[in-house]
Specification:
Layout: H1 16-26, E1 40-48, E2 51-59, H2 66-70, H3 90-107, E3 114-118, H4 131-140, E4 146-150, H5 158-165, E5 170-178, H6 182-189, H7 195-207, E6 211-218, H8 225-239, E7 245-250, H9 258-264, H10 273-282, E8 289-292, H11 310-323, H12 336-346
Parallel strand pairs: 2-3, 3-4, 4-5, 5-6, 6-7, 7-8
Antiparallel strand pairs: 1-2
Helix pairs in contact: 3-4, 8-10, 10-11
Length: 356
């Protein structure tokens, strides 16, 4: 992986103690990655402002998120999969893109109208993705309907987004906001920017003719189940004023992270799927598309209930993503919901989780 290296840009922008712990944890991994192969690529369906569309999701392998290389977010282990050296050449990135196009050609009946491109960092950070590559990506997908690129607020600018909007592409910036609560973002997630920075990036994107997707994190460490649930409800509502889509990502336990260390010691439990459903039900009335994709659902390291009902609740969540109808949750129930409700009422902050 790309070695953790704090730089002037990152110093003093998060919790220094968190950053030091994260650097120590991540330095334990030394696996190498091929700069000519993407991290992941897959086909799916997504709800967009224009309706449900087939999507091609691409995760390019870069030199790693700038913030994660300084220590970074307590729950994010993606930098552990990054290429050694801190950067990847334009030619290698284009090789990665070709692998993804080949995958689509082999597995889809037709080109996907929706393209989603991530780097597990910031696509608009030119240390991760050179301007030459950004322009080439825009040209490659000029005939598609919509493209989503991921970025921290710092790197969102009209000039960069113009590469895509000038092609006639509907363009969205996906911002990993995690929560609308500054204290939770800073203390629990160890992300350095404020909600006001997200608002400014949204305004910059709007001025460029682009839209915004807000990515939220359900249950970062150090929160009870109830605190996490209520924080998500308020965060979705605040984000709906600035983003046409809000994607709530339930936290899963990734290797080489602080959350992993807490989980190993019994100090963290991923969110209940019931909590995810509750947030979606309570925010179904907002003026935005609200979706969730519980990665690793049903496993100890992913969002889960009792094991018996996990798949049923997951299907209801996926159904809600496409239909935006909270009535889908009326079709699922399980005895473990009583345990979940007890956890909401009784779990205390700064203590071990009440249930695994």
């Amino acid at each position: 992986m790309s070695k953790p290296t704090p730089e002037v840009y990152e110093r003093g922008r998060g919790m220094d103690a968190h950053n030091q712990v994260m650097r120590d944890i991540r330095s334990q991994k030394d696996k190498k990655y091929d700069p000519h192969e993407p991290t992941r690529v897959w086909l799916d369906e997504d709800n967009t402002p224009d309706g449900v569309r087939q999507s091609l999701t691409i995760i390019l392998n870069t030199g790693g998120c700038r913030w994660a290389r300084a220590g970074g977010c307590t729950m994010c282990g993606y930098v552990a999969e990054s290429v050694e050296g801190g950067s990847v050449a334009h030619e290698a990135l284009m090789d990665q893109l070709q692998v993804c196009l080949d995958h689509e050609a082999e597995n889809a009946d037709e080109p996907s109208p929706l393209i989603k491109i991530y780097t597990s960092g910031s696509f608009l950070d030119e240390r991760e993705i050179p301007a030459e590559t950004r322009a080439a990506v825009a040209e490659t997908f000029a005939e598609r309907e919509r493209i989503v690129v991921e970025s921290l607020p710092d790197f969102v600018s009209r000039a960069k987004l113009a590469d895509f909007t000038a092609q006639g592409l509907e363009t969205d910036v996906a911002v990993g906001l995690e929560t609308a609560t500054d204290r939770v973002r800073h203390d629990c997630v160890n992300k350095y920017f404020a909600f006001d920075d997200f608002v400014a990036a949204s305004e910059e994107a709007e001025a460029a003719g682009a839209g915004v997707k807000a990515y939220l994190l359900m249950k970062p460490p150090f929160l009870t189940e109830r605190e996490a649930l209520e924080d998500m409800v308020s965060s979705v509502r605040r984000c709906a004023d600035y983003a046409h889509t809000v994607s709530m990502n339930p936290c899963n336990v990734q290797r080489y992270t602080m959350v992993d260390e807490l989980f190993f010691q019994g100090g963290y439990r991923p969110p209940w799927l019931w909590s995810v459903a509750e947030v979606l039900e309570r925010t179904a009335d907002v003026d935005a598309i609200v979706v969730s994709d519980p990665v690793g659902h049903g496993s100890d390291r992913g969002p889960h209930n009792c094991g018996e009902c996990d798949d049923r609740v997951q299907r209801a969540i996926k159904d809600f993503d496409l239909r935006q109808d909270p009535a889908v949750f009326e079709q699922v129930d399980c005895d473990c919901a009583a345990t979940w409700r007890a956890v909401l009422d009784e779990e205390a902050a700064y203590a071990m989780p009440l249930a695994r």
